[in-house]
């Protein structure tokens, strides 16, 4: 689908778009030396006096072998939104030793295309229209999350376990066993040693407090993305939204009303549970991936694997072959910075201004800037985000 673009001849438009993206890529290249220095500070190697082996030491002075046995190794919840770049941050966070990562485990427990809000019910992911939900549904879904974090695996259905990449094959094998619970019990020791991570777009922030109360070592990463970029990504991936381009204000209102509610609740939870919630912008990861990743690992009190830097550089740079056929659903991008700013090429000024009007409150918190004219919109060297103390 082609989005409305204020431009003359189509061929000239394409050439200008490519040129601007290339210029922006050069302008925003990662400062490798500075970020490598930061990673080395986080990821130091020390020699074990007893074995003589090189042993990686956590920034807080605890060797990994000991850290794995500590009771305070965090559980992690990544709470985010449809087409927010959440797969990228999910891939980053699980680059720690013994990560047990489950993505969208509530998908099978809910109606397709919905997320759960304690205050509003079951709400549609794209237009935020809600309907009442029985209290039993809340309890069923929340118990599954709690049991995963507590490694009460026998109480989980096999679909929930299969959403973990590490447990996928084992869950499939257990499905064929006559005594499924006995089979699942073999997974418990693995779970107990792991950093347990869930990524979901299907919980509202008003559901998070209950998890934080019940899981004392739970740390929450709340991922936001520039509404303009997220909306373009949704329109590409979801067919029925492609026919609503003329009603951009209503699309933006649904996105930013939910943002505003979750941000407000998140701010309250940060006061109640200090150092247990961190809000991250997708654009921070796209523009400064290593630096932002280091901040995330420090917040979690975890250390990345030894090969993390090389893995990240390859993952962010991407492999164009990875997105052939289904580019909208690819995790690996040709360049994440270009992806984060592609909306500036694909949306018309009128559509951008419609979004800006509906999302002004979100912009105040995040530092995203409204676009005043076509010159600012199409010049990718002009930043549309003002850095602040919350989001450097």
Automatic annotation (TrEMBL):
Pfam families: Sulfotransfer_1 (PF00685)
The protein's name in its UniProt record: Carbohydrate sulfotransferase 1
Organism of this sequence: Mizuhopecten yessoensis (Japanese scallop)
InterPro entries per the UniProt record, alphabetical: Gal/GlcNAc/GalNAc_ST, P-loop_NTPase, Sulfotransferase_dom
Keyword list, A-Z: Transferase
MF terms (GO), sorted A to Z: N-acetylglucosamine 6-O-sulfotransferase activity
High-level lineage: Eukaryota, Metazoa, Spiralia, Lophotrochozoa, Mollusca
Presence of keyword Ion transport: no
The keyword Transferase is assigned to this record: yes
GO biological processes: N-acetylglucosamine metabolic process; sulfur compound metabolic process
Domain Sulfotransferase residues, every copy: 75-359
């Amino acid at each position: 689908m082609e989005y409305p673009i204020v431009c003359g001849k189509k061929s000239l438009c394409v050439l200008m778009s490519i040129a601007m993206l290339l210029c922006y890529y050069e302008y925003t290249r990662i400062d490798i030396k500075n970020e490598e220095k930061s990673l080395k500070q986080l990821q130091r190697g020390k020699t074990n006096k007893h074995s003589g082996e090189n042993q990686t030491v956590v920034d807080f002075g605890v060797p990994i072998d000991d850290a794995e046995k500590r009771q305070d190794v965090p559980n992690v919840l990544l709470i985010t939104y449809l087409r927010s770049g959440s797969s990228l941050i999910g891939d980053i966070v699980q680059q720690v030793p013994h990560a047990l990562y489950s993505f969208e485990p509530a998908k099978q427990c809910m109606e397709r295309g919905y997320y759960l809000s304690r205050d509003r019910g079951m709400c549609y992911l794209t237009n935020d229209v809600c309907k009442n939900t029985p209290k039993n549904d809340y309890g069923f879904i929340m118990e599954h999350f709690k049991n995963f974090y507590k490694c009460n695996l026998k109480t989980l259905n096999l679909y929930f376990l299969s959403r973990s990449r590490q447990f996928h094959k084992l869950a499939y094998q257990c499905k064929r066993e006559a005594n499924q619970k006995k089979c699942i019990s073999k997974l418990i020791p693995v779970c107990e040693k792991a950093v347990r991570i869930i990524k979901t777009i299907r919980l509202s922030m008003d559901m998070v407090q209950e998890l934080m109360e019940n899981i004392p070592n739970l740390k929450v990463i709340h991922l936001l993305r520039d509404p303009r970029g997220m909306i373009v990504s949704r329109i590409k991936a979801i067919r029925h939204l492609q026919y609503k381009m003329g009603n951009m204000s209503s699309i933006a209102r649904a996105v930013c009303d939910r943002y505003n509610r979750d941000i407000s609740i998140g701010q309250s939870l940060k006061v109640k549970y200090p150092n247990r919630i961190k809000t991250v912008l997708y654009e921070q990861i796209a523009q400064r991936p290593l630096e932002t990743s280091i901040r995330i690992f420090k917040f979690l009190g975890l250390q990345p694997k030894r090969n993390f830097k090389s893995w990240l550089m390859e993952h962010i740079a991407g492999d164009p072959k990875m997105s052939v056929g289904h580019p909208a659903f690819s995790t690996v991008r040709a360049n994440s910075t270009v992806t984060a700013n592609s909306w500036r090429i694909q949306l018309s000024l009128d559509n951008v201004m419609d979004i800006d009007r509906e999302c002004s409150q979100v912009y105040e918190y995040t530092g995203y800037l409204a676009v005043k004219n076509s010159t600012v919109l199409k010049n990718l060297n002009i930043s549309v985000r003002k850095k602040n103390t919350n989001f450097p």
